[in-house]
Design a protein that fits this description.
The complex is a heterodimer of chains A (257) and B (329).
Chain A (H helix, E strand, L loop, with lengths): L1 E8 L5 E7 L3 E5 L6 H8 L7 E6 L2 E2 L5 H7 E4 L11 H6 L14 H12 L15 H14 L4 E5 L7 H18 L2 E5 L14 E5 L5 E5 L5 H8 L3 E6 L2 E6 L9
Parallel strand pairs in A: 3-8, 3-9, 6-7, 7-8
Antiparallel strand pairs in A: 1-2, 1-4, 4-5, 9-10, 11-12
Helix pairs in contact in A: 4-5, 5-6
Chain B lengths: L1 H6 L1 H20 L7 H6 L1 H35 L12 H14 L6 H24 L7 H24 L4 H12 L7 H20 L1 H7 L3 H6 L4 H23 L5 H13 L3 H25 L7 H24 L1
Classes of the chains: A alpha/beta (257), B mainly alpha (329).
Amino acid sequence: MIVNVSGVCTLNNVRADFSLSSGKIHVIIGSNGSGKTTLLKSVVGLLPLREGKITINEHDFGQLGRRELSRCFAFVPQFFNVSLPLPVSEVVSMGEVNSVNPFSFTRDNEEKTKRILEECGISHLADRMINQLSGGELALVSLARALMQDSDFIMLDEVDAGLDLKRKDDYYGLILKTVSQKGKGVAVITHSPDFIFMLRDDDVVLAVTPEGTVERKYVKDVTEAFLSYVYGVPLSFIKSEAGTALAVNRQRRDCCC
Amino acid sequence: MAIIIGLSMYKYVFLTVIFVLLFFLSINYGGSDLSLAEALSNEEYAEVFWDIRLPRVLNAILVGCLLAVSGVAFQAVFQNPLVSPDLLGASSGAALGTLLLLMCGISGLWLPLGALAVGGCVTLICVTVAWLINRRGRFNQLILILTGILISSLIVSFINILHYFMPDEGTLLGATGFLMGTLNGLGYRDLMIQGVFGGPALVLMYIFARKLNLLVLPSEVLEVQGINTRALFIFILILASVASCSTVAVAGIIGWVSLIIPNFARMWAGGDHRTLLPLSAIMGSNFVLAADLLSRTVTDVEIPIGILIGIIGAPMFLVIMARNIRWEA
């Protein structure tokens, strides 16, 4: 499945022209307030577009019915705020509901819920109440819920923001597994560019630039200069046997970039 | 489904035992010092029992049930455990409608219709005003709740004006009793009124219990999932308003039940509405039955149940608040 975002202008005037395809990870980066979340919400149809249109396999996004829409995207918000208690297993299993028919629940649902909780490594949380989970647990639960929806794309809005190093690593691992095993497309907003180094060469980086445009690059083409430009601060790659990391280059701080 | 019911079976059994106990106590004791055995042995007394005490007890059961369930629904719709039907003016609007009809000398089946019409209109006005204030067109919980509080206080002012200009003392007394909330003098007709309007709302709410679970989740997630959250929101809101307005039409404003009972049920049984709805329905009935029993037997003169529940309710609500805050910390 291919999502084409053509000639789009979002509510806060970011101009975007790119495509998303199944089986790939698309990392959306950009500085604070550059419009990453607005862009993501515009693509999934939560916010209106100023201009342009979005097509899914050549079909106009606006013409799709609710049921078809739910087959395209699953959205994971940055904060999965729930103020009333609800068992985790119920929250995850409701990811599959996509009609207002009250009699549409079957037995398969229970088994599928169990399987997905297992895949995400959170079977032990099944009977806990959703409003008593920690940030890391909540992130995994909301991802499990998105997986339950069986959509072609999963759109993640900076869910990794509050996670510690181990949780972050688990979380990224789960995303990679989802893409490689299920062939889904994923779009992730993140402030940890380190994630880019975990990806394959043909995965995609979508950068919201300071000029308010979106630049699409393959992971293999991402350079120090490009990231420095996007974040407005000099950055350098640090390579070692353990992998690559990114650091602010303090020696080049004074020079402009 | 079967598993969920299985796990909490003992809770249902426990509540049902209490319910049966309270029911027999309620029909055995009352203002007229008439025990069940006496009533059934004498034909004259039997009439008092069948026409006054039994319908009152049955009304109390339905009032508690409807109030608790509509409270559960309101809290799910607004994703806030401290919300109740009184909030969006449903109760005060319904009281205003009933009072207006009472003043015009109209009674009977028109009362719940008037209550529903005005209560429904006030709820609708609240939702519309909140929607207009919030130009994005999305429901902002805080704006909605604030609008509800403001509009209910406006309605209460109207009620007070009506109260002040009551034509004669008889109507004034009736209206005062009504505004304090009382089960005194309710008959089979009131039971029917509540049943006809509240019954279907109750059943539909239980059928849609899983949809109530959905409403608890963030709405943007649901929208992308293909669920029409606004339609669901309005549908459940209408059901809950019908349930609470039909009790207001017969018994007046009985506060607190719809706020406290859902919270206790949630602490005890968790937030899955498939168990929460039936459990809070029984708990609500038990609560109102017990309060009614107290109001009839504690003192020689009957205390209106609304006042009694207010006295019990406020401290109970403080306990809930304290517990909720400790949980979040």
